[in-house]
Amino acid sequence: MPQLELFSEFHPKPSYAKSPQLTMSCEALKSWKQRIFEHQQSEGADQPQQGSLFELAPNPCDPNAIEPI
Predict the structure, then answer these.
(1) Alpha carbon of 10 to those of 1, 2, 62: distances in Å?
(2) String of b and e for 12-32 (b: at least 16 CB within 10 Å)?
(3) What single-letter DSSP state applies at residue 61?
(4) Which of 10, 12, 35, 48 is deepest in the core (most CB within 10 A)?
C-alpha cells in the first residue's frame, strides 16, 4: 500500500506497551458494585421536580370521571 507510506513520517506507527493486568477478587467487585448501586439510588431519590414556567389551564375533562356506560 504505497499510498499509506506517503504519510508515514507524519503519523508514525504506534508503539504498544503492555500494561500490567489488574485483578480484583470477586468479593471486592461485588462490594464495589453494591456501593455504586446504593450511591445511585440515594442520589436519584432527592431530585427536585421540575416546575412549569407557565400557568396551565385546568383540564376540563377528568379522565377518571368518565362513565362510558
Answers:
(1) 16, 15, 69
(2) eeeeeeeeeeeeeeeeeeeee
(3) S
(4) 35
Query: 24 Cβ partners below 8 Å, 6+ apart?
Result: 32
CA distances (Å), 15 to each of 9, 11, 20, in order?
Answer: 15, 12, 16
Distance CA 30, CA 36 (A): 10
Nearest residue to 45 (alpha-carbon basis) of 37, 56, 53, 54: 37
pTM score: 0.37
Q: What is the pLDDT of residues 13-50, one digit of tens each?
A: 556 656 667 788 889 999 999 999 988 888 766 667 77
The C-alpha cell at 54 is 407557565
